[in-house]
Amino acid sequence: MEGIVVKSTGNVYDIIINNNVLVKAYLQGRLRLENNVFTNPVVVGDRVSLNKEGQNYFINKIFKRKNFIVRKSVKLSKTHQMLASNIDQVLLIVTLVKPFTSTKFIDRFLASAEVQGIQVILVFNKTDLYNEELKIKLEYIYSLYNNIGYKCIKSSFINDDNKNILSLLNNKITLISGHSGVGKSSLINYLSGNNKIKVSEISEHYELGKHTTTFSEMHKLGNQGFVIDTPGIKGFGLVDLSSKDLAYGFKEFVKYKTNCRFKSCVCVNEPDCGVKNAVKLDKISKERYLNYLSILNEDNFKTRKR
Ligand SMILES: Nc1nc2c(ncn2[C@@H]2O[C@H](COP(=O)(O)OP(=O)(O)OP(=O)(O)O)[C@@H](O)[C@H]2O)c(=O)[nH]1
Ligand SMILES: [Zn+2]
Prior knowledge:
The chain is an alpha/beta fold and 306 residues long. The protein has 10 helices and 14 strands. The chain is globular. Mean pLDDT is 82; it is low at 194-213. Zinc ion binds next to helix 8.
């Protein structure tokens, strides 16, 4: 039989089979050894195959993941902690006030998701708090991303019925992300209502010698899909993104990149650069290009250059 992992506590996994039956399962020892790049072999979102021996269920196979998000477990270590897998889409919640979300933050997030082939929907929340000046800013940012081809939604979670958002989540695994305070929990509480199965994954997180515990949570929305809340994840790790690839994370750059004279062009100082020409001709937004340069120049990014 097959199922989907909704909770992991180290040795025992909660798995939903037949769409709505929750069982506990153990991992066959063989699978534990196979995967040593990650500190955890099974993660929320994994699709697995199970067999039953006596009263116990065992995971005998983890199906190939279409994607996953990671967090580096220990600085300078080569191992990573997986946080969630098989994500169909991300709702990135953005607010222009309480707190302020910069376009650079959005662009970094979009670039990481783009190269992993994960669709992002931008939700501009707390619009009830916007004065005239912020409303103008919202229109600007909304059209910036809408014109590039991202689905954008304006919202006020506390005032709207949020049905437009619920309708986007059918039969999908959706990750909810964004700065602290933008309204992720408010939305999840609304969406999951009374029929939620709230589950959490406790993961050990070591950083600079300090030990904290974080929770990855996956909530089932009736028959309508799953939402995952991963506190502390401000974006996808850029671990697999080299400076050479960054431009491909800016999806409107891609068609102009074919005009670059050099195949290895990173679109900074090279002559005859298709991307820079497109910026000059207003085909690419200057703001996006400046964010691209800024992300490219960040020290932590440079050190990962291949
Ligand atoms: N005015 C206004 N307040 C909102 C809206 N959505 C959420 N809030 C409030 O914003 C505050 C933070 O919301 P949360 O849902 O806790 O934010 P979060 O993103 O889960 O924050 P973390 O758990 O820290 O990551 C709460 O007081 C909410 O009531 C909105 O649309 N308008
Ligand atoms: Zn170029």
